[in-house]
């Protein structure tokens, strides 16, 4: 305990909460400390308490805070994760949007992956939308992928994945949308083809910010497997802010463990995890 009565781990959890909204349970603090041990050594400090002191000082610590965020976020993701959401996207959300836009020569479908991690959700969306184009639907599309972790965003923009990450991608899509090279430096790796990459933009965005510099007519927002890390009031605020970026008739999609979190006038539940803006 410090003189003020707050233990160092409480102050650490509060710092993480204020930076990211992530409510770290006390039980995870030890695991996080293990992840940060290298940073303590890199600064030549004796312990986590001293490291926390440096972080809280703030001055010139912006880059270090970015590293802390990269280290403490859980970035688990995969292509076609919770695949029924992608069926919904092409079989319902897209046709509805195109029907509404009749008359327009080439409507543009806008999708936002709002906790994108390294991009699997964004590229899965791009693949299924590109497939709809191949089947003859006349539209263009743009995918915005945002996350708080700079490291994940860099990976997403690079679009290089381990070949073992493709096990959930149908083989014909692997052939069409991923390329590999014989060069030994990229053995076992694949890269998303440029024709798909050009539809997807990666940007840094902290869901805790009060406003988001994003269009307000997004057709579908994925907000999956991130609300679980926030406390109740933050969950509500994030959902309300994101809802204000959904086009009328558009959708907000959360993870299967998160459907109970979304309770908001103006959002109608059309599936357990899918909410339509009314
Ligand atoms: C478990 S991943 C989910 C990835 C993807 N949506 C999926 O379902 O596969 C959670 C992501 O949320 C990001 N995240 C956590 N707090 C955030 C915040 N305050 N703002 C933006 N992204 C955040 C993490 O960096 C991480 O990449």
From TrEMBL:
Instruction: Report domain CheR-type methyltransferase positions.
Output: 10-278
- Keywords linked to the UniProt accession: Methyltransferase, S-adenosyl-L-methionine, Transferase
What does the record give as the reaction this protein catalyses?
Answer: L-glutamyl-[protein] + S-adenosyl-L-methionine = [protein]-L-glutamate 5-O-methyl ester + S-adenosyl-L-homocysteine
Which residues are involved in binding S-adenosyl-L-methionine? 75, 77, 81, 121, 147, 206-207, 224-225
Give the domain of life: Bacteria
**Which InterPro entries does the record cross-reference, listed alphabetically?**
Bact_Chemotaxis_MeTrfase, Chemotaxis_MeTrfase_CheR, CheR_C, CheR_MeTrfase, CheR_N, CheR_N_sf, SAM-dependent_MTases_sf
GO BP, one example?
A: methylation
- The EC number(s) attached to this protein equal 2.1.1.80
Q: Does the keyword Transferase apply?
A: yes
Q: Which Gene3D superfamilies match?
A: Chemotaxis receptor methyltransferase CheR, N-terminal domain, Vaccinia Virus protein VP39
Task: List, in alphabetical order, the Gene Ontology terms for molecular function in this entry.
Answer: protein-glutamate O-methyltransferase activity
- Function summary: Methylation of the membrane-bound methyl-accepting chemotaxis proteins (MCP) to form gamma-glutamyl methyl ester residues in MCP.
Protein name from the UniProt record: Chemotaxis protein methyltransferase
